[in-house]
Amino acid sequence: MKWMITLLPLIARTLLFAGTGYHPAVPDTRNTIPVSDTGKNEITLASYRTADSVSGWQTYSLKEISFITKANKITQFSLGSSQQGRKIGAFYFPGTSKQRALVIAGVHGSELSSVEVAWQLIRQLMQDDPPYYSVIIIPSLFPDNSIKAMNDPALIGGVANIGRYTFPFSVDPNRQMPSPGEAYDENNGTDHLGRFIEKENQLLLQLIQSFRPQRIVNLHAIRNKDYGGVYADPRTDQNGIALGFSSDSSLAIRIAACIHQHGGNVEGNNLDREPTALYYKDPIPAPAGFLQKRNMTGSALNANRGSGVSLGTWGATAVGNKKDPSKNRDAMRIITIEYPGYKRPGDYTAVSQQLFQQRQVELFASAIRTIFLGPYFTENENNELAKK
Ligand SMILES: [Zn+2]
Questions:
Q1: Which DSSP string do the residues of 3-48 spell out, in sequence order?
Q2: CA–centroid distance, residue 381 to ligand 1 (Å)
Q3: Residue 167 confidence class, pLDDT cut points 50, 70, 90
Q4: Are the C-beta atoms of 137 and 98 separated by less than 8 Å?
Q5: What share of the chain is helix, strand, coil (3-state, %, to 5)?
Q6: What separation in Å is there between the alpha carbon of 280 and the centre of ligand 1?
Q7: 29: pLDDT confidence band, cut at 50, 70 and 90?
Q8: With b meaning 16 or more CB within 10 Å and e meaning fewer, what string describes 132-148?
Q9: Nearest-CA neighbor of 211 among 92, 114, 344?
Q10: Which of the 8 DSSP states describes residue 132?
């Protein structure tokens, strides 16, 4: 019942702002939570906890990342500016270990529910004990595209997919990564197929190469709710030779099981029949020591705009360059979460659906917080997976 009471102001607020283009991604029901003012494209961090656990460096940017992690306080910073000049907000939360994780949402701006899950995670981390992993969260990587989707509320989740692409003939934002096994080169800025990498993705790549997370959650959403779930990419060495999928798969299944046990929808993981962490479009994981096939095609679009290397493929492949080993890294665990449905709770019309979806959002966020950011299947401090 207490849960109902705290939700009522959220619903009221959602209804109040419906149709105005203003929709707070985080309900401003308390003074102690961050507010994403997506209409004005500003993120403000309200006061919470004790002042000495929070950094005042809210003007910091990507260049100061080493100061932020050294200070090891909860910090809000900006990754940089989007193509239309909006700030891309990021949050750092110190963990209890030296392990590092990254959570990103909104690579596809149309998938607004995924952005909502990231904000819910931020809210939970501000109110709960620190996680095991230190984590950076980017709730909306392509804010320009998400705002496009928000500005057409009747079409959210529709086949027009408003907000997925930055401009009419742009490449899929999730298909703009460098060649597997190669580092991102700031001076070049092109992807595996030699195409220009959009600015937001370049900032993400810079962040990954300076923060060096061992694991990443990439939050997406999927229209067909039967395919929602938690998926892992098989890790390989820099030559594409499989390292073994079992621990990545187990981590994904464990996150999915946490959602499922509390009543959440992760149908795509097939937990009741034959649990799987493999996305239905991805090739089967190769046994360790064998060449891993990768899905390089994505959505069928004109001029191969849907083709290219995804974050899953690039991140799960080790980088090994003998000439410039400074950017070399091990394969990262890449967990791709597909939230069922693009709409945010407030985008549903019936109050019962809003409550159901709000609960879903909370379940996805808390599974990330407790399992993905918890001490499960941990890597060692040299950024390598512990050998079994
Ligand atoms: Zn997506």
A1: HHHHHHHHHHHHHHHTTTT---SS---STTS-EEETTTTEEE----
A2: 31
A3: confident
A4: no
A5: 35, 15, 50
A6: 14
A7: very low
A8: bbbbbbbbbbbbbbbbb
A9: 92
A10: S
Instruction: Write the pLDDT tens digit of every residue in 213-269.
Output: 999 999 999 999 999 999 999 999 999 999 999 999 999 999 999 999 999 999 999
Mean pLDDT of 58-80: 87
> pLDDT digits over 176-201, tens only?
999 999 999 999 999 999 999 999 99
Give 337 Cα–ligand 1 centroid separation in angstroms: 9
Residue 338 Cα, ligand 1 centroid: separation in angstroms?
7
User: Could you tell me whether strands 215-222 and 333-340 are parallel, antiparallel, or unpaired per DSSP bridges?
Assistant: parallel
Sequence length of the chain is 388
More confident residue, 189 or 40: 189
Output DSSP code: residue 244: -
For residue 324, the CA-to-ligand 1 centroid distance in Å is 33
Average pLDDT rounded to a whole number, residues 156-172:
86
Average pLDDT over residues 133-140: 97
CA 111 to ligand 1 center in whole angstroms: 6
Enumerate domains of the chain plus CATH numbers.
Answer: 2-372 (3.40.630.10)
Q: How far is the CA of 164 from the centre of ligand 1 (A)?
A: 8
Q: Which residues contact 126 (CB under 8 A, 6 or more apart)?
A: 32, 33, 34, 48, 49, 74
> What is the 35 CA–ligand 1 centroid distance (Å)?
24
User: Separation of 221 CA from ligand 1 center, angstroms?
Assistant: 5
Distance 254 CA to ligand 1 centre (A): 22
The alpha carbon of 220 and the centre of ligand 1 are apart by a number of angstroms equal to 4
Residue 222 alpha carbon to ligand 1 centre in Å: 7
What is the pTM (predicted TM-score) of this model? 0.86
| CA–centroid distance, residue 108 to ligand 1 (Å) | 5
Report yes or no: 372 and 255 within 8 Å, Cβ to Cβ.
yes
